[in-house]
Design brief:
The complex is a heterodimer. By secondary structure, chain A is mainly alpha-helical. Helix content of chain A is 75%, strand content 0%. The radius of gyration of chain A is 21 Å and the shape is flat. The two termini of chain A are 38 Å apart. By secondary structure, chain B is mostly helical. Chain B is built from twelve helices and no strands. Chain B is globular. Classes of the chains: A mainly alpha, B mainly alpha. Chains A and B meet through helix 1, helix 2, helix 3 and helix 4 of A and helix 1, helix 2, helix 3, helix 4 and helix 5 of B.
């Protein structure tokens, strides 16, 4: 390792600072009872839906559709989750079913 | 009041805890393979609590000291959290001093649970959000520390277990879809992200995706707000 301990500690502190800034900025700009502009309120209502979509794509970003296994384990597991969820609407069942089928697929099939 | 909120929060955290224990462990194992003692995964997971950024930090720590790069990387890798803050501005209001911990601990998974879960009747919202955050944080630190202690000595094949977090986001997406009156925001999020992924590639698509989402939602505002006033 080429860094001294204070340099490593400073690196961790700066990463921590950067992370906290991205999380805190909206709250710092609009503290307590300061009115939130209508545009931001609108974003606050619609972003949760859009951002969940972004997170799903983010998790699947390294899946290759052009080389084997062509995203099949992910696709099958997503289908299992969707069907289980439409059937029972139970978060834990959908999660367990999807994850276990994915693990079986990547360990035994593909 | 706190006890009630803790037990209301616990079941919401189980999926995240499963994922965090194993991914936290892989983070700890990774750091120990680079020659760090278990104190490093423990300390960094307490202080940073942002999974992907911690893996990036591990790589920063074995290179030459570059403080500006560390700060800029954290800002860009975590820029998506800005959207979480905007989404939680109203929900986290009136939670008192706990609010600062809620903000500190707002990682992807904690945000996704808190933005979509409704605390049951009679449970204090602030304490509910607090315990979701704290339980997730503890699971992450526990996993990372264990991983740093044991190295790569797990007794069974866990390949693929990290899919539990993908599955979590998919389930939250489905629940939101089934509960929402309008689907345009969700569709916008997926389409903009896929477009950015195709255009910019897996390593650089988050910021362009955020810009596209902002532009699209801003352009669609009139239409979406009209639908809000007239529920179908």
């Amino acid at each position: 390792m080429s860094m001294t301990f204070p340099q490593m500690a400073a690196t961790v502190a700066l990463v921590m600072l950067g992370t906290v800034i991205t999380r805190a900025l909206p709250f710092v700009l609009f503290p307590g009872d300061r009115p939130i502009p209508a545009y931001l309120k609108y974003l606050g209502r619609v972003l949760p839906y859009a951002v969940t979509g972004l997170l799903v794509v983010y998790c699947l970003r390294n899946v290759s559709l052009t080389s084997a296994p062509f995203g099949l384990p992910e696709l099958i597991a997503l289908a299992v989750i969707t069907l289980l969820h439409l059937w029972r609407r139970s978060t834990l069942l959908s999660l367990a079913g999807g994850t276990i089928s994915y693990m079986l697929l990547v360990q035994l099939v593909f | 009041m706190k006890k009630k909120a803790f037990f209301a929060a616990l079941p919401h955290c189980l999926p995240v805890c499963t994922g965090f224990l194993f991914i936290g462990m892989s983070y700890g194992v990774y750091l120990s393979s680079l020659g760090f003692s278990f104190l490093w995964p423990m300390a960094t997971s307490i202080l940073i609590f942002a999974g992907s950024m911690e893996f990036v930090t591990a790589n920063l720590l074995i290179l030459h000291f570059d403080p500006l790069n560390a700060l800029l990387l954290a800002l860009t890798v975590n820029a998506r959290h800005l959207f979480y803050g905007i989404s939680m501005l109203e929900k986290y209001r009136g939670t008192g001093r706990k609010k600062w911990y809620l903000i500190f601990g707002m990682c992807d998974e904690t945000f996704a649970v808190n933005v979509s879960a409704e605390p049951p009747e009679g449970v204090d919202r602030g304490w509910f959000y607090f315990f979701v955050t704290l339980i997730d944080h503890c699971a992450w630190v526990t996993g990372a520390t264990l991983g740093g202690l044991v190295g790569g000595l797990l007794p069974f094949d866990t390949t693929g277990i990290d899919f539990v977090l993908t599955a979590l986001f998919v389930v939250i997406f489905l629940s939101q879809w089934l509960a929402a009156k309008r689907h345009l925001p969700a569709v916008t999020g997926v389409l903009c992200s896929v477009a950015a992924l195709v255009l910019f590639g897996a390593d650089n698509f988050i910021l362009p995706a955020m810009v596209l989402i902002l532009l699209a939602l801003t352009g669609l505002r009139k239409r979406i707000e009209r639908e809000e006033v007239q529920p179908q």
